[in-house]
Amino acid sequence: MRRLTTATILKALTGTAPAGAELELTDAVVDSRAATPGALFLALPGERTDGHEHVADAFRNGARVALVERAMPDELTVVDLRAGSPEELPAPPFCLRVASVLPALQQVAGAWRAEMPARVIGITGSVGKSTTKEVTADLLEQRYKTLRNPGNLNNEIGLPLSLLRLTDEHERAVLEMGFYVPGEIRMLCEIARPSVGVITNIGPVHLERAGTMEAIVGGKAELVEALPPAPEGVAILNYDDPNVLPMAERTLARVFTYGLQREADLWADEIEGLGLEGVRFVLHYRQENFHVRVPMLGQHSVHSALRAAAVGLVEGLRWEEIVGGLQTSQTQLRLVAVRGPKGALLLDDTYNAAPESVLAALNLLGELEGRRIAVLGDMLELGAQEERGHRMVGARAAEIADELVAVGPRARWMAEEASRAGMPASRITMLESSQEAVQLLGDRIGPGDVVLIKGSRGMHMDEIVAALGEIST
Predict the structure, then answer these.
(1) pLDDT tens digits, residue range 392-441?
(2) d(CA 467, CA 473)
(3) DSSP assigned state of 344
(4) How far is residue 382's CA from residue 80's CA, in Å, rounded to a whole number?
(5) Cα separation of 45 and 42, whole Å?
(6) Where are the beta strands (DSSP E) in 149-221?
């Protein structure tokens, strides 16, 4: 198995490497606590902590090499690459000093990826990226040795780190690509060189940073624009999303569409939500039909299954591999069902929130039996769309929930719209913080209640779940 070596790093950053520089590196990390024997440690400076302060800790945990950009204590061996490649390397552990660690990381990752044979599948969109990545990787692993970015390592740091874990034994790499500002995905594609690009959907997530919906659409389209021409390149597009389908005109790759309309290349119908038991539907491709039941939660997860199946088809999997992979995948949405006080069921979907994902979570709530309580916090970074997005969620909550608990200053728009949609005032509660929600819910919920808890990370809605979980024990 061929892994990343110091020779690759030196060649990427200086153009040459001395004889005997093939020191193998087993992993690449930015947290010294995650360093393992043989790892490369990237000493990134940050707002809260500086990796340079933890180089010695990384070495104690087994790291062989650290990439640094600042002077280090005398007891640490430093090789300065700013003047070019050294004549020889010292015995590990040692530091390699560069002008700036982050660009060096990206440069090394791009060079290493170029040496590796794996075919890369890039995934981006406003909602559903992580679930799509996980299900897609599960499917491809039916046949191929597959790498995926761990967790949500999908940005200018996380994606290069993931690529450094490639070996020559990997045949596929499924990489989620995050977006904040135009140009970011283009840069990630220059490093990762994807052959397949999957677009999930487009919504106002991160609108505050991107500025306009047009900027978001353009930023996501950078993935399909970066794909190689057909037949190698394939753009997998959401037929149901009017912001995504026109991207077919922005790529030289072959276009493959998926959705809930029969005009799509791959489509689904007869969708039946089974609550916490998953979802059932029929897949259609050309003249073939397949009845599928997947363990993912919510009818909206059908789109994630469609995306994964589309990648499977493009990558040559047989239908028995695709259907079998979908039915046995252990991937779930970030939503988790846990027990709360007095036997109530808590739907923990507190990782983050945007209008599309909150509506999807509400739809799942509507599939479940019992008194339905929606505890919804502010959705952040929506920019000019924030009032409209919150009101849209409030209207839907009035249709599905028996009670609405709105947490935060922006959530008042949800409460107002729920009232306007006919939800009685006695069933709407407005609160300022997650701590107030804990006090309210601890007394109010009981057996047979189903409580959806969702909001942006900045609202600390996860603290509600943690506190109520403690009450239940």
Answers:
(1) 999 999 999 999 999 999 999 999 999 999 999 999 999 999 899 998 99
(2) 10
(3) P
(4) 44
(5) 9
(6) 172-176, 196-199
Kindly state the tokens that stand for 161: 């780190």
Rounded-to-integer distance, Cα 353 and Cα 449, Å: 22
Contacts of 276 (CB under 8 A, 6+ apart): 297, 337, 368
SS3 call for 374? strand
Q: Tokens standing for 24? A: 């193998």
> Is residue 387 within 8 Å of residue 414, measured between CB atoms?
no
User: Is-contact 172 315, C-beta < 8 A?
Assistant: yes
Structural domains for the chain: 6-105 (3.40.1390.10), 116-328 (3.40.1190.10), 336-472 (3.90.190.20)
How far is it between the farthest Cα atoms of the chain?
Answer: 77
User: Which stretches in the chain have pLDDT values below 70?
Assistant: 204-211, 298, 329-335, 470-473
415, 405 Cβ separation under 8 angstroms? no
Please report where in the chains the tokens 């997005």 appear, as a residue.
389
Q: What is the pLDDT of residues 78-135, one digit of tens each?
A: 999 998 999 999 999 999 999 999 999 999 999 999 999 999 999 999 878 888 998 9
Residue 161: predicted pLDDT:
96
- Exposure string of 79-114, with b = 16+ CB inside 10 Å and e = fewer, is bebeeebbeebeeebbbbbbeebbebbbbbbbbbbe
The tokens describing 37, both together, are: 């024997």
Which tokens go with 123? 């995934």
Bridge partners (DSSP) of residue 281 are: 292
Q: Compute the mean pLDDT over every residue in the chain, rounded to the nearest whole number.
A: 90
pLDDT of residue 456: 87
- Which amino acid, residue 298? G
SS3 339: strand
Helices (H) and strands (E) in the chain, counts: 15, 20
Strand 254-259 with 234-238, pairing: parallel
Give the HSE-up count for residue 311: Cα atoms under 13 Å, Cβ half-sphere: 36
Alpha-carbon dihedral of residues 348, 354, 357, 358, nearest 10 degrees?
60
Helical (H) or strand (E) element with 39? strand 39-42
**What is the C-alpha to C-alpha distance for residues 176 and 155, in angstroms, rounded to an integer?**
9
**Model pLDDT, residue 335:** 64
Q: How far apart are CA 309 and CA 317, in angstroms?
A: 9
